[in-house]
Batch of 2 targets.
Target 1
Amino acid sequence: MSRREELAERLAVVEERIDAACAAAGRPREDVTLVVVTKTYPASDVELLAGLGVSDVGENRHPEAGDKAEEVRADLRWHFVGGLQTNKAGAVSRYADVVQSLDRVKLARSLSRGAQAAGREVGVMIQVDFDGTDPGRAGTAPDDVSALADVAAELPGLRLDGLMTVAPLGVDPRPVFDRLAGLAERVRADHPGARALSAGMSEDFEDAVAAGATHLRIGRAVLGERPVLG
Ligand SMILES: *Cc1c(COP(=O)(O)O)cnc(C)c1O
């Protein structure tokens, strides 16, 4: 089987699962965007996915993400989904259409400066960490979300799209996704345009759809197991 056929097959299975999850939740399929997380996979896979109808891809590291965004010819939306150092924000804002991992004011300011310098608008989602036990984990505490949303919404060059979370390992993700949805509702009261809810990965995206996710970040279910953990 060619790589194209393999990706087509896996993508079709994922699409079927998304259709079924939307039907079960009584939600229109168009409300949910599949972001295929292509980290560690080559640019050639990204091109194949674009040819198969994928519109959004996700990457979690700079410069890997930037190199791929430059190499890939297809017109795609690039989502940056990884922890981001402030000193790399300028570079990332030149190619990312959306940064889903905004978790602090300093990073928001750097992304804003970078977006303005590049003459672009960068969408941002605030990454929320509901775990709180691991200081190394990316994400802002739930209590800090609304202040960060206010800052991001005001900064030139940024567009506040919504919220994102990565469910902690080894716990039932559904209550986490429900908390994210509740928090997002409060953010929308002040920022009606912040409608995105990015939740759900290969293992748990049905739960995310049930909780109202608008963006699913799916890697392995489409691309196969990663040879090296990304
Ligand atoms: C890698 C990654 C994903 C995709 O994970 P899979 O288990 O491969 O589906 C989603 N979100 C983030 C932030 C990631 O780093």
Target 2
Amino acid sequence: MDIRKFVRPNIRSLKAYHAEEIPCKVKVDANESPYSAISNQQSAISLEKTLQALNRYPDPEAKVFRRLIAKDLHVKPENILHGNGSDELIYYVITTFGGPVLYPVPAFSMYGIISQALNEKKIGIPLDDNFDLDMGKMLGAMKQHRPKLIFLSSPNNPTGNCFSTGKILEIIKRASSVRHQSLVVVDEAYQPFSGKNEFLPMMDKFNNLVVMRTLSKIGLAGLRLGFLIAGEEIINEVNKVRLPFNVNALSQAVAIMALKNKNPVRANIASVISQREALRTALDNIDGITPYPSDANFILFSVAGADRIYGRLLRKGVLVRNMSGVIRDCLRVTVGTPEENKIFLKALKDILRH
Ligand SMILES: *Cc1c(COP(=O)(O)O)cnc(C)c1O
């Protein structure tokens, strides 16, 4: 039989997420932390018990993890839902509430991919010239399409900036009105690097607000652990579609370890923020490079002939993310260690000189 024709049409036209492993010396393409959030001695001792208990299923409710997160954020464990990365939570939220799904573009690609996989209508609304929300277009689209879900990632990937607080707030307010009725998911994957915490405190006031965070960008991408923070009503509904054992025992154990001793994570974040500023200044001083302001752990920059520059950087062993398909002549570089940043900058300068 013809399997391609057998597949649902929305899946047939979907492309599998491109996660090719490109060999390189300096990997600054995926917004990972250059440092691990766990020390060696710490891990060897604490993991022994978990390894001995791997014959058992993990805690389906991730109780300890959720309790520790809740305590940090001054909410109740009932306000937290754990996911196998925030990717999985995006899947669950769209599964629970359905579309249309509205989001500004360029944005994190998973909002669109998951909407299509679940056969929900998706609407991407272009950002303004400052990569901020275009309120005329956003409010117009809310009126026209009546989205059930609005995703706003702030700081935004791949542009790096936070959207204006007032604009996000305006969207949450409009979305909570009887006429509109949308849930707003503020995706704060990069929140630790912006230091801003403006939307969690608004949870009490707006029951249509969901905040999403992750351990991925602060040194634990390999764990696959994200979490939603929302009112209990929302958490209870989304929890119905969660697979029972979605976060495995090793990930829970390591996350708990990292949450009990936050020093490595805190040091990582501080180092990435200071390196980000140094990297931006250095990029700004290179003729032909325009870096954009960043509140995240990466920097978007424009350079003439970005496709070619991307290839030449790779040949020198430096892997960045080529964004030129999304934003003309733009590349995205993750903040690395001081050594990695130096190698990247030298390679870039060499390329531009010849
Ligand atoms: C990286 C990223 C995520 C995905 O996080 P995981 O927890 O690793 O699934 C979510 N949203 C944005 C905007 C991201 O850049």
